[in-house]
Amino acid sequence: MQDKNEIIIFENQKVKLEVNLQDETVWLSQAQMVQLFGRDKTTISRHINNIFDEGELNKNSVVAFFATTAADNKTYSVEYYNLDVIISVGYRVKSPQGTQFRIWANKVLKDYMLKGVAINQKRLEMLEKTVKLLEIANRDQEIEGENAKQILQLINHYYRALDTLESYDEQRFSGKGVRTSDKMITYKSCLSVIAGLKYKQISDLFGSERERGLESILGNVYQSFGGQDVYPTLEEKAANLFYLLIKNHPFSDGNKRIAATLLIYFLDFYGMLYRDGLPIINNIALTSLTLLIAQSNPREKDLMVALVVELLGQE
User: 27-44: b or e for each residue (b if 16 or more CB lie within 10 Å)?
Assistant: First the structure.
């Protein structure tokens, strides 16, 4: 902790908050989150407890006690929560004010970086990417329940993974992956996998390829230039394959289901599906990640691909 924290003012519509800025992030008390999100204390408290109980965030890393002067002019030690907790609560209560606060906090931290006061470029980029991922996840009501919970965990995992950039070797955590192979999955083998899905027996449209779109995507993933693969690592190939199958709609029906299936096939083909005897990505996480990419805009491709690469590459 720094010796002294600064107070900055957040003001939007009828909400005005004195926000603590310390340790390269912003902090709010539970009472301030009640005011910000327009929910009662019980609701905010329940969401905060769930965040910690579900292991989404480590309480010791995101909670601090600041001396606060109350209405009775007495000073008390009050529990405050950093931006990780604030954006997670905001996502859970689906508050428009929470979105405005995220945007405002992001700008404040950027301003402090430009003034040389607070954070370095890598941490700013991590914050911006985390905020962008939350905005994408909030676009569609299809993402809710277990899927919403898993998306929050995925995003937080991505943030923590990128946060190690300052402490670990740049090459290992470059967002480019580490594994390589000369083997290739084939167009024919992918068609065989799709043909074996139960949905193929139910609908003639399921898996019906448009203008050999799958073949084109595989060619994109394995393309080379100047004798070098455009996507050198298996993590990059997997991430781009998954993204393009979802976003390019190469089939008349079932694109998301086929994308998830072929990602699993790809990982299994290269011996990447399991880590320490456990699947590298579970069913709920796979569903959540598929929906998150489906709701993203094409200009956000690099962010979505980087997310998949980091998730596949983490030890």
Answer: bbbbebbbbbbebeeebb
Final residue of a structural domain among 103, 119, 135: 119
**How far apart are alpha carbons 216 and 89 in whole angstroms?**
42
Tell me: the pLDDT tens digits for 165-214?
343 333 333 456 789 999 999 999 999 999 888 887 778 888 899 999 99
**Residues 295, 288: Cα–Cα separation, whole Å:** 11
How far is residue 78 from each of residues 31, 81, 83, 236, 289, measured CA to CA in Å? 10, 10, 16, 45, 37
Sign of CA dihedral 201, 264, 157, 131: negative
Domain boundary among 84, 119, 154: 119
Residues 245 and 242: their CA atoms lie apart, in Å, by 5
Residues 224 and 230 sit within 8 Å (Cβ to Cβ):
yes
Strand, coil or helix: what is 121?
helix
- Look at phi and psi of residue 119 and say left if phi exceeds 0, alpha if psi is from -120 to 50, else beta: beta
Q: What is d(CA 201, CA 183) in angstroms, rounded to the nearest whole number?
A: 31
Q: Looking at the 3D structure of the chain, how many domains does it have?
A: 2
Q: Is 102 helix (H, G, I), strand (E, B) or coil?
A: helix
Map residue 295 onto helix, strand or coil: helix
From first CA to last CA, the distance across the chain in angstroms is: 29
Q: Angle at Cα 146 formed by Cα 305 and Cα 282, nearest 5°?
A: 55
Cβ-contact 175, 309 below 8 angstroms: yes
Residues 139 and 268 in one domain: yes
Residues 51 and 131 both lie in one domain = no
Span 45-83, pLDDT tens digits: 999 999 999 888 889 889 998 887 777 778 888 999 998
Radius of gyration of the chain (CA): 22
Instruction: Supply the range of the domain harboring residue 40.
Output: 1-119
Q: Is residue 130 located within the same domain as residue 262?
A: yes
- Is the Cβ–Cβ distance between 233 and 185 less than 8 Å? no
CA distances (Å), origin 216, targets 196, 219, 250, 288: 21, 5, 9, 26
